[in-house]
């Protein structure tokens, strides 16, 4: 058998001067875990925001408190938490007495994503991801040169299977085209606002494309996946490269034109760009097609010559035919008890209901197949109740 049951919601010694700015008793609601020389205290709220649970770090060696940058959307504060240190730089945080779709959270303190963000931001970083039961189907990344037909193919898919696919609405600093709606085709935004949000860790990826800034916010992907739909991202090759390096486990498809002449004709016929912009897009297309075909990012390359044929090939590689079932979200609820103890047994977390008048049921949280992570969602959680006899 593996390691001995180990549980631990350790309160720090009384009377500490904490990062919340006051010398205080640890509050009942605060929870701390120790990793090496550091304690991570989870409680209170983040920068005075009552809707965002706070995180503080205490370094034993320097006896100093610090407030890390907190990335991702974290849990809302509640009546209490259990926390346990997992492998690979994560802390499992269980909200007491919460419904199962909001009870399991992961605070990443030393994962590759967090290490990368630390380097980028030059300061201490932690990142939240929400635990989600089961596995949604992989998001789909579609790239290809401007005018090749990505938008057309995506629209066909969304029209035919409206409850199966959802579009990740990107942010961009380019001006809206005639008929483009903010929040539907893009979130049209200001460069300084977008740069600030990138700095705040709100984006899964971003890139400068044809002279404008484009990016996928973490939220835009979460909105789609949380609704139980398969998320489609229409992003350029640089963005696809970033997504490939992130925790988002996706399918990567590159769409090629039959020829450069045909691409030019399509761009002109669309009538949405000025001559100067068309020239810029055609110049970039060459490099993009080369990168798409040879970068090793894309598992699938589609040639969009005849539209109907290309659409059929797209559906084939996504494993859907005309009678494909509509995928849904699992809704069975298991509420985590307010009073409980938590024990770790290898990859399983045993949550034992305690307290008077309870049935002493045990809930088993199986983390052996989790995937994904911050920023976004940790998927693949299995939750089961073992009734006490
Ligand atoms: N990296 C990245 N690229 C994006 C994003 N959204 C759109 N793009 C890409 O930006 C490029 C230009 O998009 P757009 O201005 O809508 O022109 P279009 O491709 O000709 O329709 C295309 O290659 C898109 O795939 C994003 O969020 N991130
Ligand atoms: N297979 C095709 N044959 C001819 N025209 C096409 C084909 N696919 C797309 N188009 C047209 O080409 C233009 C560019 O397509 P669009 O979907 O906007 O490209 P993208 O999103 O890749 O920039 C649109 O006017 C569209 O109707």
TrEMBL record:
The residues covered by the Guanylate kinase-like domain are 137-319
Name of the protein in its database record: guanylate kinase
Q: Which interval of the chain is the signal sequence? A: none
Gene Ontology molecular functions: kinase activity
**Top-level lineage group:** Eukaryota
So what EC number does this one have?
Answer: 2.7.4.8
Origin organism is: Camelina sativa
Q: Does the keyword Kinase apply?
A: yes
Establish whether keyword Kinase is in the entry.
yes
Q: Which InterPro entries match?
A: Gal_Oxase/kelch_b-propeller, GK/Ca_channel_bsu, Guanylate_kin-like_dom, Guanylate_kinase, Guanylate_kinase_CS, Kelch-typ_b-propeller, P-loop_NTPase
Q: Which family does it belong to?
A: Belongs to the guanylate kinase family.
Concerning SUPFAM superfamilies, the annotation shows: Galactose oxidase, central domain (SSF50965), P-loop containing nucleoside triphosphate hydrolases (SSF52540)
At the top of the EC hierarchy, this enzyme's class is transferase
This chain is encoded by the gene named: LOC104781662
The alphabetical list of record keywords is:
ATP-binding, Kinase, Nucleotide-binding, Transferase
